[in-house]
Amino acid sequence: MTRRYWNINLEEMMQAGVHFGHGTRKWNPRMAPYISAKRKGIHITNLTRTARFLSEACDLVFDAASRGKQFLIVGTKNKAADSVARAAIKARCHYVNKKWLGGMSTNWSTTETRLHKFRDLRTEQKTGRLNRLPKRDAAMLKRQLSHLQTYLGGIKYMTGLPDIVIIVDQQEEYTALRECITLGIPTICLIDTNCDPDLADISIPANDDAIASIRLILNKLVFAICEGRSSYIRNP
Length: 236
Known about the structure:
Its main location: plastid. By secondary structure, the chain is of the alpha/beta class. 47% of the residues lie in helices and 14% in strands.
């Protein structure tokens, strides 16, 4: 795997609150190696280890992007949703930021059928065909289109399963993580002190409740993906 310098700065991570974990009563003992201290009833994450695993994750996505691989970013809680969408759009990745529909990956044929329906309805809307239908029929299809846009809008261009999935908040996206494990899809997971670090292929210990922390981690990964894509374009 390529080793590169990703400018991962401990002070920058501290300013973003990456080191703040959950309360000491709400933790997973398996996270002990990633915790450096307790402060006012809160676990403090060891940022040196965060930097190490974030760097490994950046190496992984850079190499994958340089070979034309496809990524999916998943983060559906309110504090993560906007950052996930922005990061994915910037790096031309697929994303899910509203709700992970059970079986979205393990039952790909059903998801594919929904995506075909979604694309057909978007085409009908763009061509004005929906507006030529009876009002009742048009209203029903527009509601269906709105529903599909909400839940599948971030993966509308997906034509197959992703090569790597990036997950924000292991607890919140546990179903997505389990599906990836079942299918053998490599995962990079942002994990707080209440998570299991052994589930994802690369676990990045970090605050998954602070917008600044989520954004910083995603920005580093997105930069690595964009660098990898540039390499792929230059050397097809």
